[in-house]
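Chapter summary example.
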Amino acid sequence: MTATNFAFLIPAAAWPRRVRHFGTEAEIALSGSTALLLRCCLFCCLALAEGPAAGAETLLSSQANISLLTVMPGDELYAVFGHSALAVQDPARNIDRVYNFGTFDFDQPGFYTKFVRRELDYMLSVSTKAGMVNHYRRVGRPVIEQVLNLSAEEKEKLYLLLEENYLPENRSYRYDFFFDNCSTRLRDVLERTLGSRLSFDPSVAPAKSFREILDQHVIERPFIDMGFDVTLGLTTDRMMTHREIMFLPIYLMEGFDHASMVTAGDTIPLVLHKERLFWYAQEPSAPADRDLHVWIAWLLAALLTFVSIRQIRMGPPEGERRRILDAILFAFIGLLGALVFFLWFATEHSVAHHNLNILWTWPSHLLASIVLLRKKRSLFWSRYFLCCAVTMLLLLAALPLLPQNFHAASVAVILILAARSVWLAYALRPVERELRFA
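The structure predicted for these 438 residues follows.
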């Protein structure tokens, strides 16, 4: 999920810093002493009572509506997962607010370091419904509205909770891609409002893992798909619960569609009615090149395996040689391994921890690639590549038994590493014996 700016944010001049958002769109909230004073008053109201007292004046009128707005995925990388927001509208009280939990401050100190290490705080921001819908109409992304079937007291409580979250001391939170994002926060605030009376239907959630759901959304972006498969760890292969799948906006919308709540002993649907605020027919992308990179990887694997076998039959060449192509291969795998290692051990990205891709992306291959560029090498490196070859062959045999799913192109790369390691272990060994007995 990536960031972008929006022309419809209001009032942009009142916001002291640039704000961007990952994966779902960013909006800038109203600021100023008057708005802050109002929010402080709302916070006090929430602290004094669970709901409005009998006869007391409420903040929302009987004309108020609260709805979930779902924006369909777009073509850009940052838009592939869609977007969710809660809208509160009350024409009688001149209230028009859209709450978005997916914004962050691009200009905060150490932004890039915090982003890479997952130490970047996201925050709640507010815009208007008309501005949001008009923006997505311009960029051609459909918007669906689900008006919630809430009582006046429930609307009041939900509105107060949203405003409480918008207080400066509450609006920031530590973002988690799967478990605490701009979509799950909307689910959570509704659960806080309705408590045990709210029920989501577990039967409508597909029995899939996080990785399978992500694959569906990036199927037209094969290299992004492969990037997810290589950098995300075992957590991604766990089967999701019906609540966890709501980390994606489309499944949050479906969860709301089939949710119910108990009111005065009766079970009623959560959604009062559903409407397409803006829609257009999206043409499906041509699937011709989806697996092209996989076919290329397997053709290379077949070719290099054949070359390695032929080289072994012919025997090692006389004299010392630099092995530039092998050095490039192992340098690339070493860099990839360094990334996997870094995401696992040096960041708070829990979804990147316990990543079994480390079994074939050895960071030590970076050093091995440097050695391959030298003419003289120690006997250690012959044994190193022998160990690598054995490990890769065992990994290929064990893949069906491992709890983590490996990308098809990654399996081809493992075969390439096995073939080239067998050859390098064989080719370097005679040279090392001559050096040792010299």
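To summarize the output: Residues 17 and 53 are 39 Å apart (CA to CA).
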